[in-house]
Amino acid sequence: MTTTGPAFCALAPLRFICDEMLRGVGGWLRVAGYDTLLPAQGEADATLLARARQEDRWLITRDRKLMEHAGATAYVVLLESDTLQGNLLELTLRMDIDWLSRAFSRCKRCNNVLLESAEPSPRHGVPPDIIKQRISLLFCPACDQFFWHGSHADRMQRRLAELNRKR
């Protein structure tokens, strides 16, 4: 495992940009409550690095060419693994990510942190059985996404807990 860059807690709070190779990692960071940007496909390395510097974010990548940019080691986390699980584990160990402290507090789709309670309604795409069960819903006012606790959330919670056990 490469230990590229300085001690990995210099930028606080932990905020991230995941390049296009690691959008899956970015989704899991959002599920864990971390402010994580997922730039548009094809965005230039120099642009990503400039944004990381400007916003004090870690740029997470598998792209070794990013390390050739001046000052990259201060903002870039270069992951080695070629699997999602391997990337998540590597990030856990290298940055001491707490996957459970703010889990499910941020919109996975748009990164908004201001989720609100909502009433279930079929017109918002909420399945009828969820409405019938009167399960609590959260709503993201920024992207109109609804969230509820179902079996998928249980599976995600278990995965986050497993990652935390590796810390």
From TrEMBL:
Superkingdom as given in the UniProt entry: Bacteria
Domain Mut7-C RNAse: 15-159
Pfam family, one: Mut7-C
Name by which UniProt lists this protein: Mut7-C RNAse domain-containing protein
UniProt organism field: Hydrocarboniclastica marina
